[in-house]
Amino acid sequence: MKIGFIGLGIMGAPMAANLLKGGHQLCVYNRTKSKAVALIERGAEWGDSPKEIAKDADVIITMLENPTAVEEMAVGKDGFLKGLKKDTIWIDSSTVNPSFSKKMAKLANKHGVRFLDAPVSGSKVPAEKALLIFLVGGEQEDLSEIQPLLDLMGNKTIHVGENGKGAAMKIMINQLLGQSMLAFSESLSLGIAMGIDKTKAIDILLESAVTPPILNAFRSRIEDENYEPNFPLKHLQKDLQLFTDTAYEYERAVPLTNTAKEVYALAKQDKQGDLDFSSVFKFLNK
């Protein structure tokens, strides 16, 4: 199977590498070509534009930073949608808002292309180890057809429902992740200010029944102040923005998320956008 892969960032590059390991032909594109060098050395082809990647692809996968980037690659000047063969499947694994996924599904359908929104739960290390969880919106028949590809990149696939439902589930998960990290960071920061030893405070908080287990994975980052990005703070802040935008569309009040979004925005403004999102503790504990 010939696969076109667009977007070779922290997540996209290891996902593409796992497809290569699986024996598939891969043609890749990224706005910064240097990020494709390692994949090209391992056998991937380079496409000079999204449109060029599209012409021979059986499946195209996008893993991009935001809805604007996805739309540019799909329907911009050299967008891939016009070049895809009919019945090609487009898998968008980017984290975007549900209404945007529905919009892309309609555009794809007009070009005779089948669309799946398939964002992932997981960060850099799970992507490298093919341990991602795919949250999929779209037709079950289309998902079944490309399931072997997802199995090369992840270890679990959940069909959430129609187009847009995968995207919806992803922003719900990231909203909880961002809120959890922020609440933990506030509590720990105050504990330190009150004179409790940092390591002891972390021990007790992480052993508490009220702390989400996922935060154990970030212990060393906060304890050692090592914020090398697995999930950049700027991306988490963007995901919270997508959540609040979607809440507005559905006339739902989300006061806690609006507040959390602005705290992360302040941390990004403080030049922490490219650090791991757990660095919000660093911002609060100044």
UniProtKB/TrEMBL annotation:
Give every 3-hydroxyisobutyrate dehydrogenase-like NAD-binding domain span: 164-283
- Domain spans labelled 6-phosphogluconate dehydrogenase NADP-binding: 2-161
Q: SUPFAM superfamilies from the xrefs?
A: 6-phosphogluconate dehydrogenase C-terminal domain-like (SSF48179), NAD(P)-binding Rossmann-fold domains (SSF51735)
Q: Which Gene3D superfamilies match?
A: N-(1-d-carboxylethyl)-l-norvaline Dehydrogenase, domain 2, NAD(P)-binding Rossmann-like Domain
Q: What is the originating organism of this protein? A: Gillisia lutea
Pfam families on file:
NAD_binding_11 (PF14833), NAD_binding_2 (PF03446)
- Is Oxidoreductase given among the entry's keywords? yes
Q: What is this protein called?
A: NAD(P)-dependent oxidoreductase
Keyword annotations for this protein? NAD, Oxidoreductase
